[in-house]
C-alpha cells in the first residue's frame, strides 16, 4: 500500500477529535506548562524540606537532649567551608511504608545515619541507598566517611533486610573490598552503634569515637539480657549442638580430616580434607564464635587463599559471643577481621547451612551477601538477624519502654490501650517468637 494511502486509511478510521488533538492551538483555558511545573517543583521542595526534618519534632528533641547534632549538621561541620555536598537519594523511603514514615530512608548519603528516624536502623530502602552510594564510591574511587549512629538492621523487617545478596551484609562486604582496593574507609561513632551498626567502625581503616556519646556493642543491653534469658531456657545444655566432625566424616573422602589448630578456638572447627579427590578447606561451627575462634578462622581462610584451596563453610551458628567480657576482649574487632577475610577471599566458596544462621555469624561464615559460589540449605536451616526467642525478648523490652514513655508523656491516668504488665508482655513475646521462628 502506498504511504499516502496508508495515511488516508488512518485518517478515515480515526475520530476527528483524536486525530487533531496534537494540533490544537494554545488557549488560556488550557493549563500552562509554567504553572504546572511550578506546582510540581513546589511539592518537590516541600517534600525535600519534610525529609530534612528527620523523624519528627519529638525524635529531634530527644536527639538534641543528648547533646548530639543532626546528621546534616554533622556533615556541614566536617566539610571545608563553602565546599559543595551532593546528597544522593534524599527522598528515598518517601511514602514507601504507608503510615510508617522513613524520611530519606533514615540515611544521609555521604554516609551519615539519621538516629531520629527509627533509631538509625536499616530499612530495606536504607540498605538500597547505602549500597548505591558504595557503588558510586567504588566506581569513582572515592574514600568513604561513615558518620555512624545506628541500631543496625530493623528487626521487624529482617526478612527484607537480612538474608539475601544485596541486603545488610553486603554493606560490610563492599566495605572490606574497597579497603582492600586502597579506598580509605573512615568512621566516626557519634551515638550508640549496636549489631550491624557496630561493624561499620570495626571494619573501617580508622575510627573515631565521640567521648560521652559514642558506644560500640555487638549486642546492646536488650539483646544481652534476651540472649542470657534464652540461653538458660534453650541453650546448648538443654538442646545440645551437632558435632561438625560427625558431618565431615560423612562427606569427606575416606572420612579423613586434618584438623587445623584443634585445641585453639574450639567453637570453630577448621581443617583440610578431600571431596571427590579435590582438596578443600573446611570452616565449620561448633558453637558461638568467640574472639579466639574468629582469629583462628581468619588465619585459616587466609592460608587457604594463599594456597589456592577452595573453602567449604558449614553454618550452624547463633552469632558472635555477646556480653561485657566478650566486648572488652575485642569481639567486634576480631569478628570484623574474620568477616573481612571472608569478603576478600580469592578462592571459590561453598556454603551449607545445616542449622541456625543468625546475625553477624551469617557474615563470618560466608552467607549469601558474601558471594559464595553456591549456598545450600538443609531442611533444618534457619536464617535471621537473631533467633526467635532473642528477637521476642528484645522487642518486648522495646515495647515496654515505648509504653512507659507514652504513659509518661500523657496527662492524667494512662489509657487502657497503654496498659503493659506481665500478662501483656508474655502474650507479646509468644506472638513474636512464633513470628520469627
What does this molecule look like?
The chain has about 425 residues and is of the alpha/beta class. The protein folds into three domains: about 45-215, 2-enoyl-CoA Hydratase, Chain A, domain 1 (Alpha-Beta Complex); about 225-385, 2-enoyl-CoA Hydratase, Chain A, domain 1; about 390-435. The chain is built from 18 helices and 14 strands. Helix 8 (about 170-180) packs across helix 15 (about 330-345) and helix 10 (about 220-235) crosses helix 17. Residues about 15-20, about 230-240 and about 410-415 have low confidence and may be disordered. Pathway: Amino-acid degradation; L-leucine degradation; (S)-3-hydroxy-3-methylglutaryl-CoA from 3-isovaleryl-CoA: step 2/3. It comes from Haematococcus lacustris. This is methylcrotonoyl-CoA carboxylase.
List key phrases describing it.
3 domains; 2-enoyl-CoA Hydratase, Chain A, domain 1; three-stranded parallel sheet; COA_CT_C; 437 residues; seven-stranded mixed sheet; alpha/beta
Topology:
Layout: H1 3-13, H2 16-19, H3 33-52, H4 57-65, H5 71-78, E1 107-108, E2 112-113, H6 124-140, E3 144-148, H7 158-161, H8 169-180, E4 185-189, E5 192-194, H9 196-203, E6 206-209, E7 215-217, H10 221-234, H11 236-239, H12 244-251, E8 258-260, E9 268-275, E10 278-285, H13 291-307, E11 311-317, H14 324-328, H15 331-343, E12 349-358, H16 360-364, E13 374-377, E14 382-384, H17 388-409, H18 422-436
Helix pairs in contact: 6-8, 8-9, 8-15, 9-15, 10-17, 13-15, 17-18
Amino acid at each position: 500500500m502506498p504511504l499516502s494511502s496508508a495515511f488516508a486509511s488512518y485518517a478515515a478510521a480515526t475520530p476527528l477529535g483524536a486525530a487533531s488533538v496534537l494540533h490544537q492551538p494554545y488557549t488560556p483555558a488550557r493549563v500552562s506548562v509554567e504553572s504546572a511545573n511550578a506546582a510540581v517543583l513546589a511539592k518537590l521542595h516541600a517534600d525535600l524540606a519534610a525529609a530534612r526534618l528527620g523523624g519528627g519534632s519529638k525524635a529531634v528533641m530527644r536527639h538534641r537532649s543528648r547533646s548530639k547534632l543532626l546528621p546534616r549538621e554533622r556533615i556541614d561541620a566536617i566539610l571545608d567551608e563553602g565546599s559543595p555536598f551532593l546528597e544522593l537519594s534524599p527522598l528515598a523511603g518517601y511514602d514507601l511504608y504507608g503510615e510508617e514514615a522513613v524520611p530519606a530512608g533514615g540515611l544521609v548519603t555521604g554516609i551519615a545515619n539519621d538516629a531520629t528516624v527509627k533509631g538509625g536502623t536499616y530499612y530495606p530502602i536504607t540498605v538500597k541507598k547505602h549500597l548505591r552510594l558504595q557503588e558510586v564510591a567504588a566506581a569513582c574511587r572515592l574514600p568513604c566517611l561513615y558518620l555512624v549512629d545506628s541500631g543496625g538492621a530493623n528487626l521487624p523487617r529482617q526478612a527484607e533486610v537480612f538474608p539475601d545478596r544485596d541486603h545488610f551484609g553486603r554493606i560490610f562486604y563492599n566495605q572490606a573490598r574497597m579497603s582492600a582496593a586502597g579506598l580509605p574507609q573512615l568512621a566516626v561513632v557519634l551515638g550508640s552503634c549496636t549489631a550491624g551498626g557496630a561493624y561499620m567502625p570495626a571494619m573501617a581503616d580508622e575510627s573515631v569515637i565521640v567521648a560521652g556519646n559514642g558506644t560500640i556493642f555487638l549486642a546492646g543491653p536488650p539483646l544481652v539480657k534476651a540472649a542470657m534469658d534464652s540461653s538458660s531456657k534453650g541453650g546448648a545444655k538443654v538442646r545440645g549442638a551437632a558435632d561438625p566432625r560427625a558431618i565431615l566424616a560423612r562427606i569427606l573422602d575416606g572420612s579423613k580430616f586434618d584438623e587445623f589448630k584443634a585445641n585453639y578456638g574450639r567453637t570453630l572447627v577448621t581443617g583440610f580434607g578431600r571431596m571427590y579427590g579435590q582438596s578443600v578447606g573446611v570452616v565449620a561451627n561448633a558453637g558461638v564464635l568467640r574472639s579466639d575462634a574468629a582469629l583462628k578462622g581468619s588465619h585459616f581462610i587466609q592460608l587457604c587463599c594463599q594456597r589456592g584451596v577452595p573453602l567449604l563453610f558449614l553454618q550452624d551458628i547463633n552469632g558472635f559471643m555477646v556480653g561485657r567480657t566478650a566486648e572488652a576482649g575485642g569481639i567486634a574487632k576480631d569478628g570484623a577481621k574474620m568477616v573481612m577475610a571472608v569478603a576478600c577471599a580469592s578462592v571459590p566458596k561453598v556454603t551449607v547451612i545445616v542449622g541456625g544462621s543468625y546475625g553477624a555469624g551469617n557474615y563470618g561464615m560466608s552467607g549469601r551477601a558474601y558471594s559464595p559460589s553456591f549456598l545450600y540449605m538443609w531442611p533444618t536451616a534457619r536464617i535471621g538477624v537473631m533467633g526467635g526467642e532473642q528477637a521476642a525478648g528484645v522487642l518486648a523490652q522495646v515495647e515496654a519502654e515505648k509504653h512507659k514513655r507514652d504513659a509518661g508523656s500523657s496527662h492524667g491516668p494512662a489509657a487502657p490501650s497503654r496498659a503493659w504488665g506481665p500478662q501483656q508482655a508474655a502474650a507479646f513475646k509468644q506472638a513474636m517468637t512464633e513470628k520469627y521462628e
